[in-house]
Design goal:
Number of helices: 10
GO molecular function, one term: mannose-1-phosphate guanylyltransferase (GTP) activity
InterPro entries: Man6P_isomerase-2_C, Mannose-6P_isomerase_type2, NTP_transferase_dom, Nucleotide-diphossugar_trans, RmlC-like_jellyroll, RmlC_Cupin_sf
Organism: Paenibacillus protaetiae
Strand order of the largest sheet: 20-21-22-29-24-27
Helix content: 10-25%
Radius of gyration: 25 Å
Number of domains: 3
Number of strands: 30
CATH superfamily of the largest domain: Spore Coat Polysaccharide Biosynthesis Protein SpsA, Chain A
GO biological process, one term: polysaccharide metabolic process
Largest sheet: 6 strands, antiparallel
CATH class of the largest domain: Alpha Beta
Distance between the termini: 54 Å
Protein name: Cupin domain-containing protein
Length: 459
């Protein structure tokens, strides 16, 4: 069986910590067994590894998340790249084409699709493992995992089993689905032994390849990737699941939670405060997550979340926190980005009457990592090294730089830097804000072999 984690969402309901560059699954607010802060994707990948599934697993994600994924779980995890963000049907269709044409997976192989963000206990993955046998023994086209509800929720979709059929190897035949009912209707569904739909799908690869062919879509990954923008922007539930008759559901009787909103996420946080600040003793069920160096003080407020990041500040009652997506202007570019080589934090962004844009950034480069050898086509930069030591190359000229050095990089000048030790610098960028960058090389080996005019010994 091949396991694929879907990790393409943006997580707008967790603003201001989540943005287009750092989706909700990358927020380090959960704790692992060693009491270290980890993200959702780090937690679930650790569980997959622990249960022996990592060697046969992939992650489907967007272009904007590649560096973040490499930074958090390493560069060896195989990624299936979506050209842009659409929905779960296009993502799973592209995944099927990749497994078939690139990974050369057999059409008889069972594929299991999991969302990356639910919070589950370890034995959930025993249920995931069982999907392979369920597909093979029942002959079902699709097998789902249904969570036994603990209360009548209107936030989840429901899977209603067919009462006329007995359990078959741990699976029940599916009768129909109900999308996010009222709480009153949910009571009736639970009486019918309905399950929460947790977004886990499994099928033989050949089943989905047949659907692609039937709809006239390419089954080669490169071709489908080029035509990705033409695929319908629709969920896998609507496009495939609800059009399939031969479906079974495997019950899961254990802890499961969707961590898509601040109120559900904070329920699983071990600490009520992350970052600088004070929460007064008379605050009950109040959480503070502060990524800035400015202290935040919360006095006498209960059932509240305060989240602070370079992107903005959120103060919300926990019960109303899901409404955040209706109020935030997401046209603002991300003010914080985590890269494979380090981080970027925008400190100031100003536009002037002469059409110049001046952006001030704090950039951190991890020891042993480097920026690509690049050229900015529309702006100049001034770098001030504030911590650490690095190797700097500009138009082929090499020099060692350290704390206090100021570097001027004119427009259309090739440049890069490698951190000999953890490096921090303040970058002031001035010019047109079009973001046009030309990159020649990404690895330091290529840069040092091909681009230096002077050897290090003579520099």
């Amino acid at each position: 069986m091949k396991l694929v984690l879907l990790s393409g969402g943006s997580g707008k309901r967790l603003w201001p910590l989540s943005n287009d560059a750092r989706s909700k699954q990358f927020l380090k607010v959960l704790e692992n067994d060693d009491r270290e802060l980890v993200s959702m994707v780090q937690r679930v990948w650790g569980q997959i590894d622990k249960f022996g599934l990592a060697e046969s697993s992939y992650i489907a994600t967007g272009k904007s998340q590649i560096e973040m994924m490499h930074s958090q779980i390493g560069s060896t995890v195989p990624l299936i790249i979506e050209p842009d963000r659409r929905d779960t049907f296009p993502a799973i269709a592209l995944t099927a084409a990749y497994l078939y044409s690139v990974a050369k997976v057999s059409l008889e192989e069972v594929i299991a699709i999991l969302p990356v963000d639910p919070y589950v206990e370890g034995h959930f993955f025993y249920t995931v493992k069982s999907l392979e046998k369920i597909i093979q023994t029942t002959g079902a086209d699709l097998a789902l995992i249904g969570v036994k509800p603990t209360y009548p929720s209107g936030k989840y979709g429901y899977i209603i089993p067919d009462q006329r059929y007995f359990e078959n190897n741990g699976a029940l035949k599916v009768s129909h689905f109900q999308e996010k009912p009222s709480e009153e209707a949910a009571v009736g569904l639970i009486e019918q032994n309905a399950f929460w739909n947790c977004g886990v799908f499994s099928f033989k690869l050949g089943y989905l390849i047949e659907i692609l062919l039937k709809n006239g879509f390419p089954i080669q990954y490169e071709q489908l990737s080029e035509q990705y923008h033409t695929l319908p922007k629709i969920s896998f539930d609507y496009e495939v699941v609800e059009k399939t008759d031969n479906i079974v559901v495997v019950p899961y009787d254990g802890y499961w939670k969707d961590l898509g909103t601040w109120n559900t996420l904070t329920e699983e946080m071990k600490q009520k405060q992350i970052g600088k600040g004070i929460i007064s003793d008379d605050c009950i069920n109040t959480h503070l997550i502060n990524e800035l160096e400015l202290p935040v003080t919360i006095l006498g407020l209960s059932n509240v979340v305060v989240a602070v990041s370079p992107d903005g500040i959120l103060v919300t009652d926990k019960s109303t926190s899901p409404r955040i997506k209706d109020y935030i202007n997401y046209d603002q570019g991300p003010m914080y980005e985590e890269k494979e080589w380090g981080t970027i934090r925008i400190l100031d962004n100003q536009k002037y009457n002469d059409e110049r844009t001046v952006i001030t950034k704090r950039v951190a480069v991890k020891e042993g990592h480097n920026l690509s050898y690049r050229m900015h086509l529309d702006h100049e930069e001034v770098w001030t090294i504030v911590r650490g030591q690095g190797e700097f190359i500009q138009n082929g000229n090499y020099m060692v730089v350290g704390e206090g050095n100021v570097l001027h990089i004119p427009t259309k000048t090739l440049h890069t830097i490698r951190a000999v030790s953890d490096l921090e610098m303040i970058i002031v960028q001035s010019g047109k804000d079009t973001g046009q960058v030309m990159e020649l090389f990404t690895s330091w080996h290529d840069v040092s072999e091909r681009c230096m005019k002077v050897t290090k010994g003579n520099g």
